[in-house]
Amino acid sequence: MKNICLILLLHSFLNFAQKTDKLTVYSFEEIENLQQQNPKPLLIFVYTDWCDICFGMKKTTFQNEEISTILNTDFYVIYLNAETEKEISFLGKSYKKPSSKIHELAAILAKKNNQIVYPTTVILNKECKIETQLQGFMNSKNFKPFLDALLAKDN
Question: Closest by alpha carbon to 79, among 59, 64, 65?
Fold first, then answer.
């Protein structure tokens, strides 16, 4: 009986001690300081609160352990609500939401072919220039090769 209790206790401890990667999400304000210390590409996820597909990508793709590990290691990740009322300072400029429109920064980052689709995943290179924009949902199976190709291109 002692052995069974010991095995169960050890099993519980090992499960508790397992590393669980959670995605680290930064604000635009935090990024400028981080970029000076350790430049990395930025991944900006442009979403809205009413977008079920956006919510699904946050809860599945970005919470996938392999994806979150890559993102935490090689990128700074920012979630940008396209409808936020908050003024955002980024790269020496301030951006805000005009009344009844989408946020200025979301429009600049996510507009592709004169339209915005939610979600849009925007990759900025280390110099904070738009490298690519992915419109729509991407599952982790398709997102990982995309990230791998981006990282291989940078090296």
Answer: 59
Pairing of strands 42-47, 25-26: unpaired
Pairing verdict, β 25-26 and 76-81: parallel
Torsion of CA 8, 9, 11, 12, to 10 degrees: 110
Q: What is the pTM of this model?
A: 0.85
Please give the structure tokens belonging to residue 107: 């429009």
Give 1 or 24, the one with higher predicted confidence: 24
Torsion of CA 43, 49, 52, 55, to 10 degrees: 40
Domain count, the chain: 1
Residue pair 88/103 in contact (Cβ under 8 Å)? The answer is: yes
Question: What is the helix (H) or strand (E) element at residue 6, kind and residue range?
Answer: helix 2-17
Range of the domain at 114: 21-154
